[in-house]
Amino acid sequence: MQQVEHLHLEHVVQTVGVLEGVVLRSFGPDGGQVLFTRDTGQLMLSRSGKQILTALRLDHPLARMVVECVWKHSEVTGDGSKTFILLLASLLRGIQTAASKGSVGSPVYANRAAVLAAGARHTAEELLAFGLEELAAVIHVGVVPHTASLSWESGPKHRDPEAPPHPDADADPCPLQRLLATFFHTRLGRTHAQLTSRLTRDLISLWRPPTGPPALTLRFLERNFGALHTSVCGLPAGGSRLVEGQVIHRDFAVSPRPPQPGQREQPVRAVALVGAGSSLQPNALSGGAVLQVGGPGGGCGGAEEVDAEGGVLKYSAWAERSLEGAVGQLRGLGVTLLLSAGRQTQAALAAARGAGLGVVECVEEEELALFAQLSGATPAAACGRVGREHVALLSFCKPIVLGAHRYVHVGFSGPAARPCSLVLCGAGEGQAEQRAGAVRDALRTLLAMWEPWQRTTEDEHAASPLAPSRPRHPNGQSRSDGAAPSREGALDPRGTVPAGGEFEFLLHRALMRHGHGPRGQGPRGQGGVPALCRLLADALLTVPRHVYSRGPRPLLQAQRLSLGRSRSTALHEQSPGAPPRASDKGLESVFCKYRLILAVLQCLCSVLRADAVLHVHKSSRAIASPEDTGDDDDEDDER
């Protein structure tokens, strides 16, 4: 029999409060790490809110619904998972308090739970309507005058990716690095924030062409990040660096023949084989060979055995000639390196070794696609149909040892950008992967800031920084900075404020003024907007309250300093060469904060619209989608 569990407002508050207690342990710049124990006995430390929430074993469907909303928001903006839970819990407690006060004098006090649920649902819908209609205008009036636009040109110019870091590289970091340092400080801690932020800044700077739009570079790096980074376990984090070219995560099955002493080194020519024809050894079914076993009668006499033996010999001779022809064709084109998506046979490897042809087999398709895009060569579908358009010219090809593994390292000649790969090291198990996830989320955060200013191109090939296109205004005039009008009204997606609660303090004051101003008597009538503004303003102070709960600076002192700075002068307006203030050491995105508030308000409406939970006694694997049955280790974690 199906069981129905009615959801009351206090149940929703308690459920989200449990999630709040989990993320509070790692919230803020001084938050700690959460220890996970896998079913295999392996241990994992993490400060990532998304990873912590998705690793929990949640039985209640309402909690899983909230975590799914957090996950979707984090996939778009790359950040804000823990702040999402804090704002949602604070808004629910405020709505519960307001609904309880309004239901005491109700004539239907006997059905108080239904009255509370109806009032909470109505308040949540009003909050969402206010957020969609008026919040952007409030931020524009109260926050935007105190922001600074993040300039892309503030980063360093092209530098040697393998050069040692300059001793004064972090003495006066650029705004882009300060934004990244704030992001990594909450994800990786104080120790590794500066190093990771500098590597991420240099990665973006080296990949971006001088005239290319920033959004195209960020989108390209985010989509190809799996092939552009290498996680190395067992080495200290200080060994992380950028290496020129691409690291292919396979070793040589056959090493290329080195040049003879005194012989001039020739350029490396490579061919990428993909698809079913990625093997040098021909297939009897696809190559046109016919193997007859037995005669027409289908018997097992001596004549039939002779025919079978003759057929095998004919096929072996044909395969050997075909293999020699394929290797000879590659050598005729000057090819010295073969990248194959499939596994080669021993005969094919022996033939390649005899011809001095290097072979790398079982290469991931994502890496082959990136190799083709960077080299400009077309991948070959079959070894027997290789032409000059399939040959890539490389500047070098050599092995590289990263940790306990040896990979293939190739360089390119010709692209406008300087292709490079990111090597991330971690001493413990999973630490390098966590740093890689943090860098990818940082790219998503920057993309969320810059993509509204960059018109989305319809051509997928234009998403590469190697072939940038200059966007245009709606009136047809070209922009020099690759910017397009924002779709979020007057908000500048590149606007930043100092980290540490500055945005929450400014928006709190703006909401209180908006609620008591002439616009407070809006169409919602009779003080509805002032009540909503106060409810949202009080919830916003939850974030700096927890930020300064572990630090030496009290909340009221930080709030007074923030409001004093906003009254005296606009933020970030300094004379050239002036030393940076303490408040400028970290930056946060105003646009990402705005999108976070909207996501929280949408989740708030969703959780309060649920009236009951219907428990169906059925195996979860029987109703799971194919995507949910993959090898996701996070689902097997236990806190």
Question: What is the strand and helix layout of this fold?
Answer:
Layout: E1 3-6, H1 9-23, E2 34-38, E3 43-46, H2 49-55, H3 61-77, H4 81-102, H5 112-133, H6 135-142, E4 148-149, H7 175-188, H8 190-207, H9 214-223, H10 225-228, E5 229-233, E6 241-244, E7 246-248, E8 268-277, H11 284-287, H12 302-332, E9 337-340, H13 346-355, E10 358-360, H14 365-375, E11 380-382, E12 391-402, E13 405-412, E14 420-426, H15 431-450, E15 495-498, H16 502-516, H17 528-540, H18 542-547, H19 555-568, E16 587-589, H20 590-608, E17 612-615, H21 620-623, E18 637-638
Parallel strand pairs: 5-14, 8-9, 8-11, 9-10
Antiparallel strand pairs: 1-17, 2-3, 2-18, 4-15, 6-14, 7-13, 8-12, 12-13, 15-16
Helix pairs in contact: 1-4, 3-15, 3-20, 4-5, 4-17, 4-20, 5-20, 6-16, 7-8, 7-15, 9-15, 12-13, 16-17
